[in-house]
Amino acid sequence: VTADNRFARDLRDKRAGESVGTRSEIVTGPVSDWATDFSHTEPEWSDDPYPIQDDLRQRCPIAHTDRFGGGWLPTRYEDVAAIAYDTEHFSSRSIIMGNFRPPGDLAPIGGSPPITSDPPFHHDARKLLLPAFTKTAVSKLEPATRTFCHSLIDAFQGQDVVDAAADYAQHIPMRVIADLLGFPPQDGPQFRAFAQNTLEGINRPPQERVTRMSALFYYLRAQVNEHLENPRDDLTTFLINAEMDGRKLDASHIVGTMTLLLIAGIDTTWSAIGASLWHLATSPSDRRRLLAEPELLPAAIEEFLRAYAPVTMARLVKDDMRFRDVQMKADDWILLSYPAANRDPAQFDRPDQVIIDREVNRHAAFGLGIHRCLGSHLARMELQVALETWLERIGEFSLADASAVTWSTGQVRGPRTLPLRIHGG
Amino acid sequence: MQWPGRVCLRPCAAGPAAPAAARHRRLAQNGCLSAAEYGYACAVQESEPFPLLAPMQLLLLHPSQQTGRFLVKVRIDAGLCQGHGRCYDLAPGLFGDDEEGYGHVRSDGVVPAGAADDARRAALNCPEHAIVLIEGDTA
Q1: B128 at the A interface (CB within 8 A)?
Q2: Of A282, A83, A68, A81, which is closest to residue A164 (Cα–Cα)?
Q3: Which residues 6+ apart lie within 8 Å of B102 measured at CB?
């Protein structure tokens, strides 16, 4: 075993500890006016954000809030796209809008490259990862994913009502990501806790967040050490050995990217599978049509991604600037709502309707521009296999208890409790 | 040429609400997208006043039937492509992915007979508007 001194020092640097940067006051409670006081952490938003977004798009297309230290919420496709493309004025150095802003000198790398990186660093950090996430590369994971989906449904044996979010959708990306990174598959429940703290815990007290983030870093450091001792064919070993400009990656880059793959790969796809099943459970005509015409599934998946896009991004304004009619200040947040963009009537015909055979569907569920979701082909493969297997095995199903459905809060939205009555099994 | 005027129900260059149209316009100015194709894309996208017509426009009103022009070539603007992969998902006969997932046109970009609709479908579903359709005359 060769000593790798990159990992000798404590990895809990400024990212993990949130020790350097700016904190803002935690403000919670009911929103007074969504145009001037929006919050993506309130239950009204997580339960049903679409009427709020539709209202804002008409009366105040770039809403503002003083919460989280100040931020903006564009709801028109045009504005969301313009900001996504404009990496000169909007930084990705933090992409989770909360009460903590990392210091400006964290750019252009950010805590979890390449999602938190700006040009020019972004390009090479992303290029390194692209080959592992092409459609061709991820198709190799399809047979194992299918077998795993079948095993989850096998476990429904004897049950009339199952939780499709907790007992099905959740486990699929957990298993896929654990396999990709070479982590023990039984660690899945820990990943869920890490992801929930990162994405949903943004209004928790700072010390609690630091403690929880530290747990993630200790876990990843242990995985790196284990891979240093037992290198194998997975993304962790790949990152340990990878080079950029002839140099091996910094330890913080490696662990940051592992954090990204772990967090971004799980809640997102879990949400997309869950939201698709929620739609099919509540829309009998679409469900019956897909059962009768399974070849429509790829188009239907794109429509579910448009209508229930799980991911909202965030940016930080680099310098004081004017954008459209508003004056933005340096370090203001932008809550970059791809879900709102995807329901803009200026961009989509009948945006509020789910049309499972929609012909023209330029949705932005995976983002636009240089930060296009690295895992989009993986997510599409998982969605296809998860829904195909569900429809094949379950057949007819329906919502068992509408009042028991819960949705995640924050920037990744999807069902977290989804009791479905299954008739076939 | 009747096509864009008849079917593009709203002016496509209609300012702030039409970013896609703005990109089309830029492509058209650069000579990358024919005027007919530009009108066609806008028509499908902006058929809101008569939404039920949208699928029919795809089938019935594409430029070749209106103008005597036909689709001869397709290419990908590498400066715009971000590797979403909609083209090689929807039209795998025409497009493939490279080792980083970016789309490329198979062979020399000449669209075989019968594949024009696939090419159009790919172009109309590219989130980055990176697919350029080039038309020729039916001479």
Answers
A1: yes
A2: A282
A3: B76, B78, B81, B82, B83
pLDDT digits (tens, 9 = 90+) for A43-77: 999 999 999 999 999 999 999 999 999 999 999 99
Place of tokens 């990152």: A239
SS3 A406: strand
Q: What is the pTM of this model?
A: 0.87
- Which chain B residues touch A366 with a CB distance below 8 Å? 84, 127
Asked whether the beta carbons of A119 and A89 are under 8 A apart, the reply is no
Question: Chain B residues with CB inside 8 Å of A370's CB?
Answer: 82
Does the CB of B92 have a partner CB in chain A at under 8 Å?
no
List chain A residues with CB under 8 Å of B124: 359-360, 362
Kindly state whether A80 is in contact with chain B, defined as any CB-CB distance less than 8 angstroms: no
Q: Give the count of alpha carbons within 13 A of A375, CB side only.
A: 24
Long-range Cβ contacts of A317-322 (<8 Å, 24+ apart): A317/A89, A317/A90, A317/A91, A318/A88, A318/A89, A318/A90, A318/A91, A319/A89, A321/A89
pLDDT tens-digit readout, B65-120: 445 567 679 999 999 999 999 999 999 999 999 999 999 999 888 898 889 999 99
ipTM over 0.90: yes
